[in-house]
Design brief:
About 25% of the residues lie in helices and about 20% in strands. The strands form six sheets. The chain has a six-stranded mixed sheet with strand order 9-2-1-13-23-22, covered by helices on one side. The chain folds into two domains: about 260 residues, 3-Layer(bba) Sandwich (FAD/NAD(P)-binding domain), CATH 3.50.50; about 170 residues, Succinate dehydrogenase/fumarate reductase flavoprotein, catalytic domain (Flavocytochrome C3, Chain A, domain 1). It is an alpha/beta fold. This is FAD-dependent tricarballylate dehydrogenase TcuA.
Amino acid sequence: MTQVIIAGSGNAALSAGIAALEKGAQVLMLEKAEEPLAGGNTKYTAGAMRFAYDGDADILPLVQNPDDPRLKVTDFGSYTQEKFASDLLGFNDGRPLTVEQQTLIKESNGAMQWLASHDVKFEPIYTRQSFEKDGRHVFWGGLTLASEGEGVGLFEQELAAFTALGGCIRYGCAVADLISEDGKVTGVVTDQGEALSADAVILACGGFEANPDLRQKHIGPDWDKAKVRGTPHNTGDGLAMAEKLGAQAYGFYGGCHATPMDLKMADYGNLDLPPGERKNYRKICYFLGVMLNARGDRFVDEGINFRNYTYAQFGREIMAQPGHFAWQVFDAKVLDLLYGEYHFEDAHFVEAESLEALIPLMEGVNGAAAARTLEGYNAAVMEEAAFDPTRLDGKGTRGLRLAKSNWAQKLDKGPFRAYPVTGGITFTYGGVKIDARGAVLDRQDAPIAGLYACGEMVGGVFFNGYPGGSGLTSGVVFGRRAGYGAAGG
């Protein structure tokens, strides 16, 4: 029987484990964290997964509760492979689609159906990805489903499938080194000094987002100051072990998923909260208002596209501002449209009945400049266009140096709120190069025998950002490939 060891226990690792077990392998998963923090970054996510689909026939078999009465009045639309490709190209900075991106697109639907075959079920993301219009729930951004129970639920469902197939997991046991004999990986050494033999090792232990020195080295100065949204355990260990064996560094090491986060949050999503609540520190409804930096200026087009296509970039834009912070400003017209994290009991904000009273409460901001910016913004809002959050409504501004392209409404109804935000890093984009079986390639493009990788370890999938929900789907697509490859399938 083929012996497979997997480093890590997140979505990609569990997908690899399930796939290897399907092929008859014996699988041991080694997790650096103790059991409460197992699951890598998966537990910190909202569990949303982007995949290509043609319509309801692709969606409904994946849904946990097919009797939900809302399904009869829901417009899921479609999200074609061509649209997925176009969305990814929008973040490639002129690069053509990579082989890895093409794989993600083509296998995304099948990956979802495969998870469902292992009793991993999903629910429509009504609260975050749809708005009610004419009595119907209209999904607007090509992202429709999340795991029941969000990221925690995804981890629990995948772990249940993994253990039901006979997989074993050890917590508080990190892979510290790889054992290689005659150019083939034959096992691992744990951080406890134990040598374990294997026919194949799968590295699924994340990127380097929790390593401030590597963030500065690869992403840039001051990135040591970014808030880490996810696990504290993704410190680049797998990348270092692979590099020592001659693995080819691949992809964009200067890129990362950086989300606007509450400025006052603790690192690692605040570990004293249950994992499912850590997402409440995200602040991604900027498209319903405006963002101001310390100089009192707007610095992005908050409405340039649906937030699914901008939130992973705007965190980086905030990090580039003086002091690495900004304030998101809203008026009463949109407060009921703000996602739950804005109403979370620990959300930080200031509130006043007028903009004049609000501005002095925004700590660190040039008040006079902020007043000019907001006055100019209000004067530039197109009055004739109708506000419609279910589509790119064209309700923008005129005459501003930096336009707001959609969802521009005057800030004119109190009470007014402002939320302080910074950039929160979730995962990094640089990794190793793999082949079609998930095997890690060396610098001459030859497979390193016995070594496989998936998840954040895989480079070439994302560059200057990504459409929301693609990260978890990528973990499943490349995790399944690595599992099959390691098991000899």
